[in-house]
Design brief:
Elements lengths: L6 E3 L19 E3 L6 H6 L7 E3 L12 E2 L4 E2 L3 E2 L2 E2 L8 E6 L7 H16 L3 E6 L9 E2 L3 E2 L2 E6 L11 E12 L2 E12 L5 H16 L23 H12 L4
Parallel strand pairs: 1-3, 8-9, 8-12, 12-14
Antiparallel strand pairs: 2-13, 4-5, 6-7, 10-11, 13-14
Helix pairs in contact: 2-3
C-alpha cells in the first residue's frame, strides 16, 4: 500500500451568520501523514489523499451533491442551487506573506488567474496584510473583510498541526433572499517550498473557498486524492462555472 498524504477538509460551513459579525471560516484542508516527504508526495503520482470530514458544532454540515457523473460537487446547497459568492462583485483578497516561499507572488498570481479563467469570477488584489486569521468584521465601510491567503505552521495557529498542509473555506450569510459566501480564508503550510505543489494546493483550497467540495472523479483537482493531476479538470471547471451562474442578488 502506498504512503498516504491526507486531506483534512472541514467544509465551507454555510450556516447563516449575523449581518454584522459572521464567524471566521472553519475550512477544508490538506494533510500529510507522518514520515512522508511533502514535496515528493505532492508531485509524485500514486500517493493517496484520504478525505476526513470535520464538523463544527452549531453549524450545518455540507449539502454535498455530485453532478456531471461525479465530476464535481458543492459544499452546500440552497434548495437546488449551490451557495456561492456574488459574481457581480469582484472577490477581493489579501496575502500575508510571512512564512511564504520565495516567489510567492507568482505562485498566488498563477493560482488566482487559473481560478478566474476557469470560473468567470473576478478577483481583486488588495495587496498584503499582517493578519493571520479573519475575525468576520466589515471592512472599509459596507464591505466584508477580503479573502485572506496566509502561510502558517502548527506552532503559529494550531490549524496546520500534524500532517495538515493547507486549509481553506468560506462562511455565508443572507444577502437579500439568498445565502452568499462573504468571507473566506486559505492557510498554506509554510514548510512547502515546491512552487508547483504550492500552486496546486492553493488552487484546490480556492476551489473550496468558492464552494466546491471533493469529488468522486479521480481526474479532477478537487478529487480527494492527489495522484499527479496537473491542474483543474473539466469537472472542476464545470463546477466552478455552475457556482458563477448563481444569479446576483
Amino acid at each position: 500500500m502506498p504512503d498516504q498524504i491526507r486531506i483534512l477538509r472541514g467544509m465551507a460551513l454555510p450556516g447563516t451568520l449575523p449581518a454584522a459579525q459572521p464567524q471566521p471560516p472553519a475550512p477544508p484542508g490538506r494533510q500529510r501523514s507522518n514520515g512522508v516527504n511533502l514535496l515528493k508526495g505532492l508531485v509524485g503520482a500514486g500517493l493517496a489523499i484520504v478525505l476526513v470530514l470535520v464538523l463544527v458544532a452549531g453549524y450545518f454540515g455540507p449539502g454535498q451533491r455530485f453532478f456531471g457523473g461525479n465530476s464535481y460537487a458543492f459544499l452546500a446547497m440552497n434548495g437546488d442551487e449551490p451557495i456561492a459568492w456574488n459574481h457581480c462583485q469582484a472577490i477581493r483578497y489579501q496575502v500575508n506573506p510571512k512564512g511564504a516561499p520565495v516567489g510567492w507572488e507568482d505562485i498566488v498570481d498563477r493560482a488566482v488567474q487559473d481560478i478566474e479563467d476557469a470560473s468567470g469570477y473576478v478577483f481583486r488584489d488588495l495587496g498584503t496584510s499582517a493578519k493571520t486569521q479573519l475575525i468576520g468584521q466589515r471592512y472599509d465601510g459596507n464591505e466584508w473583510e477580503p479573502v485572506l491567503i496566509a502561510w502558517s505552521d502548527r506552532y503559529q495557529t494550531g490549524l496546520l498541526d500534524g500532517s495538515v498542509i493547507g486549509r481553506g473555506g468560506s462562511r455565508a450569510t443572507y444577502v437579500g433572499d439568498r445565502e452568499r459566501y462573504v468571507i473566506g480564508q486559505v492557510w498554506l503550510d509554510s514548510t512547502m517550498r515546491d512552487p508547483f505543489a504550492t500552486q496546486m494546493v492553493l488552487e484546490h483550497e480556492l476551489g473550496h473557498v468558492l464552494g466546491l467540495d471533493h469529488t468522486g472523479n479521480s481526474q479532477q483537482l478537487m478529487y480527494e486524492a492527489y495522484h499527479g493531476q496537473k491542474g483543474l479538470g473539466k469537472g472542476d471547471i464545470a463546477g466552478l462555472k455552475k457556482l458563477h451562474d448563481v444569479p446576483c442578488p
